[in-house]
Amino acid sequence: MRDLLPYFSLAIAVIACCISGWVAIRAGRWRDSEAAKALVDRISGVERTAGLHAQRLEQIEEDIAGLPTKADFARLEGEIVSTCRIADRTEQAVLRLEDYMMRGGRS
């Protein structure tokens, strides 16, 4: 029995090589089948869709980057408050001048 062990191992190796060759031939034939072509078309469609989604996502990220931040709103609020103070002072000055003119230049 021990004398047959190397031949048994050789037979297993030959069978493994035959199975590998058979699988390679089947894979080559499958590549040309309609199922493989349909799979390639579906994958191409998914890749195109993923590309379009990536473009849309980049556009959205660019749009978001252009939006004002909290700091921008705080600065704008400060400018509005400053402008309101100036407008109030200007209104008070106009009222004083108007009152002065209505009195005919007399205090």
Task: Please render the helix and strand layout as text.
Blueprint: H1 5-31, H2 34-65, H3 70-102
Protein name: DUF2730 family protein
Keywords: Membrane, Transmembrane, Transmembrane helix
Transmembrane segments: 6-25
Index terms:
single chain; membrane; 107 residues; mainly alpha
Compact description:
The chain has 107 residues and is mainly alpha-helical. It is built from three helices and no strands.
SSE succession = HHH
Terminal CA distance reads: 134 Å
User: What's the helix count?
Assistant: 3
What's the rounded overall pLDDT mean?
Answer: 90
Radius of gyration: 42 Å
- What is the molecular shape? rod-shaped
Profile the largest sheet: none
Structural class, by secondary structure, is mainly alpha
Helix content: over 70%
Low-pLDDT segments: none
Number of strands: 0
**Strand residue content:** under 5%
Keywords: Membrane, Transmembrane, Transmembrane helix
Transmembrane segments: 6-25
Protein name: DUF2730 family protein
Explain what this protein looks like in three dimensions:
This protein has 107 residues and is mainly α. The chain has a domain at 68-107. 86% of the residues lie in helices and 0% in strands. It has helices at 5-31, 34-65, 70-102. The longest helix has 33 residues, at 70-102. The chain starts with a helix and ends in a 5-residue tail after the last helix.
